[in-house]
Design a protein that fits this description.
2 copies of one chain form a homodimer.
Chain A: H1 21-33, E1 39-46, E2 56-57, H2 61-69, H3 75-83, H4 89-96, E3 103-106, E4 112-113, E5 120-125, H5 126-130, H6 133-157, E6 162-164, H7 172-185, E7 189-190, H8 193-199, H9 209-214, H10 218-229, E8 234-236, H11 242-253, E9 259-262, H12 267-280, E10 287-290, H13 296-301, E11 309-312, H14 314-317, E12 327-335, E13 344-346, E14 362-368, E15 374-381, E16 395-399, E17 402-403, H15 409-421, E18 439-441
Parallel strand pairs in A: 6-7, 6-11, 8-9, 9-10, 10-11, 15-18
Antiparallel strand pairs in A: 1-5, 1-12, 2-4, 3-5, 3-16, 12-13, 14-15, 16-17
Keywords (chains A, B): Glycosyltransferase, Ligase, Transferase
Enzyme class (chains A, B): ligase
EC number (chains A, B): 6.3.4.21
Chain lengths: 442, 442
C-alpha cells in the first residue's frame, strides 16, 4: 500500500504499535486457550455525548481504514516485542502473518451520532479484531471530538468562512488530523501546510506580529508585505494602534487591499470601527478577518458584526472543552466455539459499576417524521423493521479485509452538512442541552 | 540524522511541513524587503498558567531538538509549495538550502515554569528563526500540558506507581508524546507499545473485559490467562460480580496472584472489600490496581484506600482539563540592519488588546530562600545580578545549529522531581490557586 494513505504526512512503516500492551497479552492467552479463533463482533459506541452537546459527528473513518490496512508486524516491531518479552514465540509467529481479514461496517464519515449509536462494527476472529481496538479508538475519539466542535462553530458562523489555525496548540501530527476533522465539520481552509500536503485542504496565511516588529516601522512592514504578496493580501493591523494601522494599510495597498486581520481587543467594537474607517477610506471591498481566542460562542456573538471570516485555533483543536469522545470498543457477540459455523452469543459486561452495555450485533436507523426531520435514533438486534429498512445507517467499509469504501473528503464534508440539516432545529442551539433526538432500543 | 530521533515511532522525511502557511509568506516578504537576515531573538513564554494551576512543567524539549535538526525542505515538500503557489521561486531556492544555524537556549526539560518564564530562546536570522515557530509551539504546548497533569497526579499518588493508559483517548501519535510527557511528570509505565518502542518506557497490560466475555465463563477466562501469563498476572475482576471473581481468581492463580484490577464502581469501597477478601483468602501480597476515569482528585481521594497502583487514561492525555498551554513564540529583539554587528533593539507588541509582552533578550533565575525553597522567578534583560548568577535557568541547547544537550529521559524525570520538591509546599495542593511563586521583572 501507499504509505501516503496513512492519514499522516509521513512514511509510517506500520500502525501496529499504536496498540495497548494488553491487546497482545490477550491474544497470547486466547491462542493458548484455543479461543482466539472464535468469531467475534466488536462495536464502537459512546454511552453519552459530552455534557450539553446535542449531537456527535463521526470523523476519522477514512483514517481508520488506512490504519487497518497498514496494521502489520514487521521485523523491527517483532524484534521489539521479543526483546521486551511482551508475548511468546508462538504469538510472535502468529503476528508475523497478521493481516485483518474480517468485515467492518460503520456510520459513514460525516454522519451525526447519538448515545448508543453503533458507529463501527468489526467482525472476524477474536484475535484479529481485538488487536485493532486501540488504534481505532485513538482515531475516532480524537477526530470526532474536533469535528463536533468544528460543526458547532460552522453553524454559528453561517455563511462566513472559518480558517483552522490551531496547529501550534496541539501535537504536530494531531494538528494534521484536526485540520482534516475541521474540514469535515465545515471549516473552509487551514493554516497547516501538512494538512494541505496530505489532504489537499486549502491553506492560507500572510503574516504575524513578528513581521511588523522586524521592520523599522509598521509602514515599512506593510510595504514589504504588499510588495511581495500583492494588494490582495491580509494585513495585520493590531501591533501598535489599530486606527493608524488601517490608515497606513489602505494608503500603501490602495482601496483594493484584500483584508485586514484583528487579533486582539474587543472584536465586536473594533470590527465596527475598522469597517467604518475602511468604508470612509474607499476600501469598501476590503474584508475583515478576526482571530483572537474564538470559540463557537464568540463566533455567534459576532454575527451582527461586520466580520468576513473567522480564524480559530485553540478551541478548535481542543474540541471546545471536550478534547476527546468517550467512545469504547466492546465485544458484543462471539461464537460458542472456534467452529466457523458456531452461532453467535450476545455478551455484555454486567457488573454494578455503571459501565454496562447492550449485547448483540446491532443495526441502527434514523427515523424521520413526516417533514423528513430526524425524530429518533433506533438501535436494535435481529431483524430490521421494514419501515426502517431504507433508513439504515451502517454501510460496508471493509469486506474480507479489503477496504471497499474510500471517498473524497469533500463528499464527507457535504454528508455532514446534509446530516446536520436533517436534525431538528434545536440541534444547532449552542446552549447546553440533551441529545436532540432520543435513542430507542428495539 | 536518524529518523528514529524524531520523537515519533515512524520514519518522517521532514518536520518542515508542521508549519503554518504564514511563516513562509513572511519569509518571502522579508527576503524581498532585505530584512530576512536581521539578527533576531524569539522567546517562548506563557502569559499565564492554566486557571488554578500553581506551576507549569517544561516538557517536549528533546522532541523540539529533534524537530529542529530535521527541519528540511526536500524535493517533495518544495514541489508541493510550488504547485500550491505558497511562495515564489526565490523563496523556494532559499528553502532548499535551509538548515537552522542559530543558537537555542532554554529551561532544561523537566524544570518547572511560571508566567513570563523565558522557556526557550531562539536566536539567528529572522528568516531561519521564524520558520520554527509552529512546530516548536506544537510540541511544547502539547507535551507540557500533559506533563503538568502528570506531575499533579504523581504528587497525589505519592509512592504508588501510575500507569499511563490513555492512548485510545487521543490522536495515535499524540498518545506516544503523551506517554513520554507522563513519564517526565512522574508516571512509571505505559500501556502504549509505540512509547515503549520509541522511548524505552516500560509497557504493561494484561487483559480487558472482552477477554472474559470471549470465554464460556469467567473461570475459563482466568484459567486461560493464568495458564498463559503466569500467576503473577493481573486479573480483571469486575466483569460480572467482583466478590465471586476475586474468589475464583485466587482459586485459580493461588495466593501468589500478582494483582487484581478494578475498573468500575465506587473504587474506595470496592478496594477495601477486595483487600479484605484477598487477605482472608491468604493472598496478602496480591496487589490491587484501579483504573476507572481517574484524575488527580480521584487519586488523592484514594490515598487511604488499600490501592497499590493507579491506571490513568483520559484525564492524563487531555491534560486534566487543560489540554494545551498558552505558550507563544514572540520576537523580542532584532538588529537594526542585516549587518551581523548591528545592535539588537528590543521589540514588543503594544496595542490595547491585552496581548502585550516584554521586549528584550531575557535571562531567568530562581531565587531561593535560606532553606533552599524557591521564592521567586526572576526575569530580566541586561546583566544578571551577581547573587543570582548561579541560579540561572536557561541552558545551551543548540549552538550554531548543532544540538549540544541531548539527555536520557530518566535524567529529565529526576530533574522534574527535584524541581518540584524545591517549590514551596503549597505547590502540590490540588485546590485552585495562584502561581506558587511570583515572577519578578528586573
Amino acid at each position: 500500500m501507499n504509505s501516503a494513505d496513512l492519514g499522516l504526512p509521513v512514511d509510517v512503516p506500520s500502525t501496529a504499535l499504536f496498540t495497548d500492551h494488553y491487546e497482545l497479552t490477550m491474544l497470547q492467552a486466547a491462542l493458548h486457550a484455543g479461543t482466539a479463533d472464535r468469531r467475534s463482533v466488536f462495536e464502537v459506541f459512546t454511552r453519552r455525548l459530552p455534557e450539553g452537546r446535542r449531537y456527535g459527528v463521526v470523523a476519522g473513518t477514512g483514517r481508520v481504514l488506512d490504519a487497518v490496512e497498514n496494521f502489520r508486524f514487521d521485523a523491527g516491531v517483532l524484534g521489539f516485542l521479543r526483546e521486551r518479552k511482551v508475548v511468546d514465540e508462538a504469538t510472535l509467529a502468529w503476528l508475523a502473518d497478521y493481516r485483518f481479514s474480517g468485515d467492518i461496517w460503520g456510520y459513514p464519515e460525516g454522519e451525526v451520532y447519538f448515545p448508543g449509536s453503533p458507529l463501527l462494527r468489526v467482525e472476524g476472529s477474536f484475535a484479529e479484531c481485538v488487536l485493532l481496538e486501540t488504534v481505532i479508538l485513538s482515531i475516532l475519539n480524537h477526530d470526532s471530538a474536533i469535528a463536533a466542535a468544528a460543526s458547532r462553530m460552522a453553524s454559528a458562523a453561517g455563511d462566513r468562512p472559518l480558517i483552522e489555525m490551531g496547529a501550534r496548540r496541539t501535537h504536530e501530527l494531531a494538528a494534521v488530523a484536526a485540520s482534516r476533522a475541521a474540514y469535515v465539520g465545515g471549516f473552509a481552509t487551514t493554516s497547516d501546510l501538512a494538512a494541505g500536503f496530505r489532504y489537499g485542504i486549502p491553506t492560507v496565511g500572510t503574516s504575524a506580529h513578528a513581521f511588523t516588529l522586524l521592520h523599522d516601522s509598521e509602514r515599512d512592514a506593510f510595504r514589504a508585505q504588499v510588495d511581495s504578496l500583492g494588494e490582495g493580501t491580509t494585513l495585520l493591523v493590531d501591533t501598535y494602534d489599530v486606527k493608524e494601522a488601517v490608515r497606513t494599510a489602505v494608503e500603501i495597498a490602495g482601496p483594493k487591499l484584500g483584508a485586514v486581520r484583528i487579533d486582539s481587543g474587543d472584536l465586536l467594537l473594533v470590527a465596527h470601527r475598522v469597517r467604518q474607517q475602511l468604508d470612509e477610506l474607499g476600501a469598501a471591498d476590503t474584508k475583515i478577518v478576526v482571530t483572537s481566542d474564538l470559540d463557537e460562542y464568540a463566533i455567534a456573538s459576532l454575527a451582527a458584526a461586520p466580520v468576513d471570516a473567522y480564524g480559530v485555533g485553540t478551541q478548535l483543536v481542543t474540541g471546545s472543552g471536550h478534547p476527546t469522545c468517550s467512545m469504547v470498543y466492546k465485544l458484543v457477540a462471539r461464537a460458542e466455539s472456534a467452529d466457523p459455523k458456531a452461532p453467535l452469543v450476545p455478551v455484555a459486561k454486567k457488573s454494578a459499576g455503571g459501565k454496562t452495555s447492550v449485547g448483540g450485533r446491532k443495526w441502527a436507523a434514523r427515523r424521520l417524521d413526516r417533514d423528513g426531520v430526524a425524530e429518533a435514533e433506533v438501535v436494535g438486534t435481529g431483524a430490521v423493521p421494514p419501515e426502517l429498512a431504507d433508513r439504515q445507517l451502517l454501510v460496508e467499509l471493509v469486506r474480507g479485509g479489503d477496504v471497499v469504501a474510500r471517498e473524497p473528503l469533500d463528499t464527507v464534508r457535504e454528508r455532514h452538512i446534509a446530516a446536520r440539516d436533517a436534525l431538528p432545529l434545536s440541534a444547532t442551539q449552542l446552549s447546553k442541552g440533551e441529545s436532540v433526538i432520543p435513542t430507542e432500543y428495539v
